[in-house]
TrEMBL record, chains A, B, C, D:
The active site is at residues 78, 141, 165. Keywords: Cytoplasm, Hydrolase, Protease, Thiol protease. PANTHER family: PROTEASE FAMILY C15 PYROGLUTAMYL-PEPTIDASE I-RELATED, PYROGLUTAMYL-PEPTIDASE I. It is found in: Cytoplasm. Homotetramer. Belongs to the peptidase C15 family. The gene is pcp. One of its GO terms (biological process) is proteolysis. This is Pyrrolidone-carboxylate peptidase.
Length: 201, 201, 201, 201
């Protein structure tokens, strides 16, 4: 079995992205399962091009995409990705879509195929604040989740996939009264997410 | 030189109070200065009775009161305590004052005599989110800060005093989307606060 | 042409529901188009049973569902309804689903077929705070939006449909620091929403 | 008897200030009492110079200062003004004080001498969301409240004084999800505040 877990590069003026900071130091194996790690670009077009290639190349059994959710206080397990790209802020390529479908003629949405309820329960049992989220927004995170699930669906692949949003880490909010979570706790949350996802297989 | 640092007992249905959790494990000495630790009751009357006694008994050079601030995301250094007690929720003695002065005929307010700006700067330099707060509320925390500063003022004592509010720790907000901070970071924040306060003397 | 516009009955301990308060006093005709008004039950099962019947009976060209969104400060035009029912609070029938599809084997989501972007623009032009929302939640509002769009889709009906969330009105938040909007402004917002939706036809 | 009520000029990039918009259209007399209205500059220095002059010239029995509170959802009756000026944003004179007393050697704070609890109760009875606030911040609003109360105190004047913060009005938040209140309701709130303050005399 193989798990692919991704984080994003920094964006929006931040120097780091806590999702990739947490992913990059995960162990190589968890519960005997190989963990592949990839840093994804904060680019609508980049995601549409590269994420299917990465999936084809690595052929994981499980793919867990992670990203930074400014303002959220807990680990949020996304329930659904919707077929829309919209942003007031440019992505790292300078692109700023408005009300644009990710793929024309494709389904309105896909639900996560990770065991989202069990992940939340396991995180809380491990003293990590967590909840289901019903919107991954319309920025690159949602696009990544949609692209992965759509690629899996249209190619009939046997891959479970979903998205985890993580809070800022403290060093990103030194001067702003915004919630954060320690990098250590985020990393532990991702390990637990992987363990719960593996159990399902 | 002696530093007295206090935390509160749990209240409002919580099982722990992060202020006391952080205080109780501080080292016995910081920068060569003896650290005295006390757990305070969440009681308007208890504070008015016991805090002056504790100050008289321990005769510290510096007193740092700490308490839990539900909903706040960062360490907040209180600027001012006001002469009022008011609460919609009962304290741990079942008391619920409305618009009642802490002491009649006493000043409207006292400013913290800790180096509040330097503490904020030092916390941020140590990668801990921090800010000045202009209101310690009207619950027992504000009362404690006011009682300490008033006792010092009317007795002409040479003691610096102030109040630090700390966020929830993660285990308190497992199921609610409220900000928290790791206990380890809170403890480090209190150590830095003590170090900065000592420098002043 | 006929427009059907609905509001919900009160729920969650509230005495009124601002959505129905605003809907019930709309004029009988707007821009020459007949306006039909219905109050819907806050009931997952009730919505699944009655909403298709109402649509079959009234056969509107446009259906605008409206509901109360606690905590939101502006008029929010929902973009998407998802195939899930989940709630920690009971509906008015005492039902509290967890992670349950509205319809098994049905699409994950439907997008609103109202001109959502133009409605937002027109509301703002009329000095009414407004925005697109990417989540109608997982309570009865989302269910109503999904049920309407699904009924229209599977029966190939030529009806545009969507959902508008409205804030509390001031009398609901007298003692809580939560955003509200005047009933007059909400009513005006619904009129503008109807006018913009009609233009499309 | 005479009531002086003030609002502020716009600041921070806003085109209007809801406090002055509401004040300027108040009737000339309320319950038989003459209402004097003044627009104040958003200037730390301007307030310190002009507000005492205005008080000396108009010699009101009651002075009600009002200002805009970005982000607040209800009418807030300020309890206390503190002897500090601090701001990250410049005032309309380009001044940006840091941790500076309004007056050296002056008291730390003054409590409002308006019947703040009765005002809140009366507003709520009139279906207007309202609450006591324990901090008027450290910007020009707090300075105005402090300057008025200090001037009254040191000159032993028989004037009741206090500060009312009002929310944004809807046209200020068309594109941001921030709370607002209709100008009509704000105006009504100020009338009720005046009526309650008069009763006290």
């Amino acid at each position: 079995m193989r798990v692919l877990i991704t984080g994003f590069e920094p964006f929006g003026g931040e120097k780091i992205n806590p999702s990739w900071e947490a992913v990059k130091d995960l162990p190589e194996k968890i519960d005997g399962v190989k963990i592949l790690k990839k840093e994804l670009p904060v680019s609508f077009k980049g995601i549409k091009e590269k994420l299917p290639q990465i999936l084809n190349k690595t052929m994981p059994d499980i793919v867990i995409l992670t990203g930074q959710a400014a303002g959220r206080a807990n680990i949020t397990i996304e329930r659904v990705a919707i077929n829309i790209m919209e942003s007031k802020k440019e992505d790292n390529d300078g692109y700023k879509p408005e009300d644009e479908p990710i793929f024309k003629e494709a389904p309105a949405a896909y639900f996560s195929t990770l065991p989202i309820k069990r992940i939340v329960k396991s995180l809380r049992n491990n003293k990590i604040p967590a909840a289901i989220s019903n919107s991954a927004g319309t920025y690159v995170c949602n696009t990544a989740m949609y692209v992965a699930l759509h690629h899996i669906a249209i190619n009939n692949l046997n891959i479970k996939a979903g998205f985890i949003h993580v809070p800022y880490i403290p060093e990103q909010v030194l001067e702003k009264p915004q919630p954060s979570m320690s990098l250590e706790m985020i990393r532990k949350a991702l390990e637990i997410t992987i363990k719960e996802s593996i159990k399902d297989q």
